Amino acid sequence: MKIYTQRLDPAALSVKQQAVIDDQKQAQHFLYLDFDTRQRSRFKAQTQQQQDVGIDLPRTETIKNGSVLADKHGELIQVMAAKQALIEVTADNSFDLMRGAYHLGNRHVPLMITPDALYFEPDHVLEAMLGQLGLHTQAVQAAFEPETGAYKGEHGGHAHGHAHSHTDSHGHSHAHHSHAYAYAHTHSAQSAQSDNGHSHSDGNAYD
């Protein structure tokens, strides 16, 4: 099984390396991963061609959509953001959408921002809060590439899962926990579509 240990800057690929990536795209040979998996630095996964690979990267930032990884032999693989369950937030005007972004950001929620909508991982308490603000929410399937920075913890990943408490003045607060640094197994997009992008913990070594 190939183990990918390096991140490469897609903008700095050589002509030869870019040709390899282009050929892989044509052959549907890449990793299709959801946001939760892309936050991890060590995990096992399957390519679109059902080939098992291992990822063992320095613990830095979340793997971005389009990132290129290399193994010790210089062989490359590209990572694409898989579609997953999200909540889409829209508003009747830009000011209301900006208010929604403020309140979600104030709760340190990983948030993807576009000109016409906001996106976050499903959370019924947050949906209810947004409804009270006059915003519109709906469940969608989309690739998730949230803003970086505000939600980063000590190890560069956001705390996943929230404990909610309610007060009159603050709405609700979140208690966060960090992901364990362990191997995880995730499926290709084809499998992810059937499992809704679900990944599984796997305590085994690569071999």
Explain the overall architecture.
By secondary structure, this protein is α+β, with helices and mostly antiparallel strands. The chain contains five helices and 14 strands. The chain has helices at residues 15-26, 35-38, 94-106, 124-132, 189-195, and strands at residues 2-8, 31-33, 42-46, 52-56, 68-71, 76-81, 83-90, 112-113, 118-120, 136-143, 163-167, 171-175, 184-185, 200-201. The protein has a six-stranded mixed β-sheet with strand order 2-6-5-1-4-3. Strands 8-9-7-10 form a four-stranded antiparallel β-sheet. A two-stranded antiparallel ribbon has the order 11-12. A hairpin with a 3-residue loop joins strand 11 (163-167) and strand 12. The longest helix is centred in the middle third of the chain and has 13 residues, at 94-106. It starts with a strand and ends in a 6-residue tail after the last strand.
Task: Compose a concise summary of this entry.
Helices cover 22% and strands 31% of the residues. By secondary structure, the protein is α+β, with helices and mostly antiparallel strands.
Helix-strand layout with pairing:
Elements lengths: L1 E7 L6 H12 L4 E3 L1 H4 L3 E5 L5 E5 L11 E4 L4 E6 L1 E8 L3 H13 L5 E2 L4 E3 L3 H9 L3 E8 L19 E5 L3 E5 L8 E2 L3 H7 L4 E2 L6
